[in-house]
């Protein structure tokens, strides 16, 4: 008997070659999926908690809108650097060690951030905000880079489906963060939201130590530079940049805009942010299943989603040239459009980059997956820096409406460039390599204990 065959399959009397449906997940795969879900949820709820109340609290401590944008943006810069480094050296460091250590660092920084209200206003408060957020970003980069790479390694033929399913928990983190953070802030003050969520994140550390598998792999000789020599990958990276820039812009500016324009409390600001995260949470698994079943549709999902994102940002303010009055219901609806289109656009990008890398000769393994994860995280972080910083500057010197319109223009340009690329490319036959790899994966162990 082949020692690599799943015991559940060995007990099945049906010959392996006659089984067409996908195999049931092994216990280790199921536990790993739970682990990845816990990482996505805990990381995103700790990230999204800042949106409803931190900009207002930072203003009380003497921070301008531009400085608030830089505090959000420094997180992205350190995340960018960390993603590139961790993505390149994931094999040497170890994916499991990287993820667990990243969670531990993030939990400590979340708790420390909750103590910053005791720091005197002015330069001391602002400096410590930068320091704590920067270290937190490195922990987050380590956790998410290894999470993406492990997911693609363990579920090689269903990357979009699994990522889409995991994005339910990302969406739940985004959904719960603003209202929970806003409610805790209103009820108990500044410290409690960070203490509760930091401790919750800390609990995830021993759980993931027990659950996560250890995967051995050899380092690759390929580099980020060779990934970026492909036009398709560069265009997809630009799409990822526009998506994260839009989200970063909303995180840093929407709460102040809603409070000033509509007179909302921080708790209500958290509720209207559900309009962004809930549609994304619902759309992601559906988009993942469709794009895995029909891989040829991935590119056009990205194009259509990018166009819809642009429309959402044009009407979020709305853009002044349309002369549409400020209306709360329109703001909430456009947040829903942006959230749904984000799922359409973001979910297919990661498997599409992986496929493109493999088609151009990159070694199939954890090292390449780590580089793709690192590239994805780095480009996402670039957008998360640009969005709050540039969006904050435009909002401060012009208005929120013009800043949102510029974000929409970036998304529309990305969708247009990618559409032109696809239209100029001749259709190519489906690679037989995928079928061969699928057959190989069914006969080899997914995990090395």
Automatic annotation (TrEMBL):
GO molecular function: transmembrane transporter activity
Name assigned to this protein: MFS-type transporter SLC18B1
Membrane-topology descriptor: Multi-pass membrane protein
Keyword Metal-binding: no
All residue ranges annotated as the Major facilitator superfamily (MFS) profile domain in the record: 32-432
Membrane-spanning ranges: 31-54, 66-85, 97-116, 122-143, 155-176, 188-212, 233-259, 265-287, 299-322, 328-347, 368-390, 402-424
PANTHER family xrefs: GH10249P, MFS-TYPE TRANSPORTER SLC18B1
GO cellular component term, pick one: membrane
Keywords: Membrane, Transmembrane, Transmembrane helix, Transport
Entries under InterPro entries matching the protein: MFS, MFS_dom, MFS_trans_sf, MFS_Vesicular_Transporter
Gene3D superfamilies: MFS general substrate transporter like domains (1.20.1250.20)
Main localization of the protein described in the UniProt heading: membrane
Pfam family, one: MFS_1
Residue numbers spanned by region Disordered: 1-22
Record organism: Scomber scombrus
